[in-house]
Amino acid sequence: MFRIFSTVSVWCILLVAMFCCGPGYAETKQISAQQVAPFVSMAIDCAVQEYPNKIAHTMQSDADQGTPESLHPSFYGCFDWHSSVHGHWLLARFARLYPQHPLAVEARSILDRHLTIPNIALEVQYLMAEGRTSWERPYGLAWLLQLAAELKEWKNEGSTEAAAWSAALQPLEDACTIRLSSWLPKLAYPIRTGEHSQTAFAFGLVLDYARIAGNEDLENLVVVTSNRLYGSDFGSNLRFEPSGQDFLSPALAEADLMRRVMAPEEYALWLEAFLPEIPDSFEAGWLPVAVVTDRSDGKLAHLDGLNLSRAWMLEGIVFGLPVDDSRRQALLGAAEVHRGDGLDAVTGDHYEGGHWLGTYAFYLSSGRGLNTPNRKSD
User: Fold this and answer.
1) Residue 141, number of CB atoms within 10 A of its CB
2) What are the residue boundaries of the structural domains of the chain, listed by start?
3) What percent of the chain stands above pLDDT 70?
4) Which of 109, 75, 117, 70 is nearest to 92 (CA)?
5) CA atoms 156, 160, 161, 165: torsion sign
6) By C-alpha distance, which of 95, 1, 99 is closest to 43?
7) What are the pLDDT digits (tens) for 247-296?
8) CA gyration radius for the chain?
9) Any long-range contacts for 223-232 (C-beta under 8 Å, 24+ apart)?
10) In whole numbers, what is the pLDDT of the chain averaged over residues?
11) Cα 104–Cα 372–Cα 192 angle in degrees, nearest 5
């Protein structure tokens, strides 16, 4: 088992964050390529490992039979489609941030083989086929757009490779946007689960994508839908979380979404009504980490992902608050406890967690949710 941070380093980061959190906070959270490398190695292995594979596959006839790779030539590894997609996001982000690392060469090779025009055409054909209106909605579609956002930013930095991959991915990016844009106006209620169907987490990824891509229609649709579904919420209670197989917090994901939608002063008032239990001074242990009893059980291992996603969502909440808000230290304290526990669990010892937890570890440790535009006015 490898440890990403020692206890001492975790608390050093916490002290820095308490004084520095605000604009530029994400820069205090960067870690080295050596610390990230184990996550990347897992993603590289998974991206080309076709089996075991869980296909959520609606068939209209015998003609729809196929192997994972024949059905999804770009995203057939990592057990399921959405895990493969966000595994490719991890590879793209690592190669972009650490281009000189030896693993970046392997990452680019996989992107080059998988993100091709013919492969993506088959992925689009699959997504838009009859009977698949709700396929991978919203989680997988949101992660695909997050991959597209990463490639667009990398392309804008002058990478010709990223430009080619981004162009190849564009038709699937457009198809995901069509699926989501037709769904959001019809969504009468939010989906408040702790797993893939949750709307708040997906909306956050989609909103970040829309702002990076300059898609104002999609941005406005997500903002309007978020306000409609969540803007009047109050009285949430974290004592009812987590459920036994959550990897996302319904309450914290909603709060992390709404900081992307509201200005800081407005957000502070909304958060006070929505999560009144957040302490207004530093208080260790106010949000206990989730306990994982068996990491060889894929559903129970979800709770390692919950600790990681809680960490970045707590950081995101802080990022959205005014700099003098008294709740920031308690939020940061909880974030660092979850960060340390979550990162320690990303070992790759069990495929049940190893095929996807690296993405969550890198999303957290690279500050991805904080390194995207927060609001149009920012």
Assistant:
1) 26
2) 31-54+67-185, 187-373
3) 91
4) 109
5) positive
6) 95
7) 999 999 999 999 999 999 999 999 999 999 999 988 878 999 999 999 99
8) 20
9) 223/261, 225/184, 225/185, 225/187, 226/257, 226/258, 226/261, 227/261, 229/187, 229/189, 229/190, 229/199, 230/190, 230/200, 230/254, 230/257, 230/258, 231/258, 231/261, 231/270
10) 91
11) 105
What is the identity of the amino acid at 9? S
Residues in the chain: 378
Tokens representing 302 are: 């979800």
Contact (Cβ atoms closer than 8 angstroms) between residue 42 and residue 354: yes
* CA max distance for the chain: 62
For residues 64 and 247, what is the distance between their CA atoms, to the nearest angstrom?
32
Preceding peptide of 73 cis, ω within 30°: no
Report whether 361 contacts 92 (CB < 8 A). Answer: no
**Does the model's pTM come out above 0.85?**
yes
